[in-house]
Specification:
Blueprint: H1 2-9, H2 16-58, H3 71-102, H4 107-110, H5 113-119, H6 124-144
Helix pairs in contact: 2-3, 2-6, 3-6
Length: 148
């Protein structure tokens, strides 16, 4: 008896309310991904800026030499790598969430089969995240090998 009531409690019915709830959840997933992107861009940009700022500071006439001259580079590399790592984690989390929303018992409220194959994974946030991963890797290598 308890099994049948718990199964009925989680039954998914395709109604307008459930479909719009599914859309709100999908858009919430997009907003979360964009928040990850903003945070990663801030980490990568701040890490790169710290390195550049302290390198320029050393070139000012009369500036005292730093006690730990490599510390800004290490901090910058750490921030850039945290940004890249957060992008990789966010892409994994986003794809997991999308697969969950489009699969199993939620497929009936997501849309028709034609809709699912055309628009299931088409979103610009994944492309932006992948582009930012490459930019972050370039920034990491540029700081590591002093290319810039």
């Amino acid at each position: 008896m308890a099994e049948s009531t718990s199964a009925a409690r989680f039954e998914v019915r395709a109604t307008a309310d459930t479909h719009f709830g599914w859309i709100r959840t999908r858009l919430s997933l997009e907003r979360t991904m964009m928040s990850w992107l903003r945070t990663a861009v801030a980490l990568i940009g701040f890490g790169f800026t710290i390195v550049q700022f302290f390198e320029r500071l050393e070139q000012i006439p009369g500036a005292l030499p730093a006690q730990h001259p490599r510390a800004p580079q290490y901090l910058g590399l750490a921030l850039i790598s945290c940004g890249v790592l957060s992008l990789i984690i966010s892409v994994w989390q986003y794809r997991w969430g999308i697969r969950y929303l489009w699969g199993g018992m939620f497929a009936s409220i997501a849309g028709t089969k034609e809709h699912m194959t055309k628009e299931q994974m088409q979103t610009p946030v994944i492309a932006v995240a992948i582009l930012l991963i490459f930019i972050g890797l370039f920034a990491f290598l540029a700081v590591l090998f002093r290319l810039v």
